[in-house]
């Protein structure tokens, strides 16, 4: 039986490559993408006939809850404090939007729910970014009635981004030299390709 997928954050570094991988995956019939603004026809590559972009207001996700009744939900939403403008604005995107999405997935009885967290995420972290990620993990994993919830925890992401973040640009340059030194318990801190994160998200879904 062919699957249906819902993607939030499909225009970002991981989200875009995830949607393109889903388009090439013969197990999926349709991929609905909730986006902030209309996309150009050539934004995605692959079998774009599978894609249904829906422009939504993320401040009112509850108005689009009908889209959450699909088999597989992928959430790739995320920003930075610098880009968001404040800690509260960052938390709104990286915690509130994702948490609401999980609640809607539960209400609509979605088959599974996968989202992007971060290596080092911990609700007890002194780092604000990692603390928010950890609090979100606790909130979603502890949500009764949500089917098959899983988080991926990448380190610094590698890949072509319109706005290359300074840390990611540095990681990309140093990766060939540092990655061989990161092994054992440190292997999780290796910079990772966005395409590999997207592939891991797909592997976590229940078919």
Automatic annotation (TrEMBL):
Q: Which InterPro entries match?
A: NAD(P)-bd_dom, NAD(P)-bd_dom_sf
| Domain NAD(P)-binding, first and last residues per copy | 9-133
Q: Which Pfam families match?
A: NAD_binding_10 (PF13460)
Task: List, alphabetically, the Gene3D superfamilies matched.
Answer: NAD(P)-binding Rossmann-like Domain
The record, for SUPFAM superfamilies, names:
NAD(P)-binding Rossmann-fold domains (SSF51735)
User: Taxonomically, which superkingdom?
Assistant: Bacteria
Protein name (Swiss-Prot/TrEMBL): Male sterility domain-containing protein
Give the organism the record lists: Paraglaciecola psychrophila 170
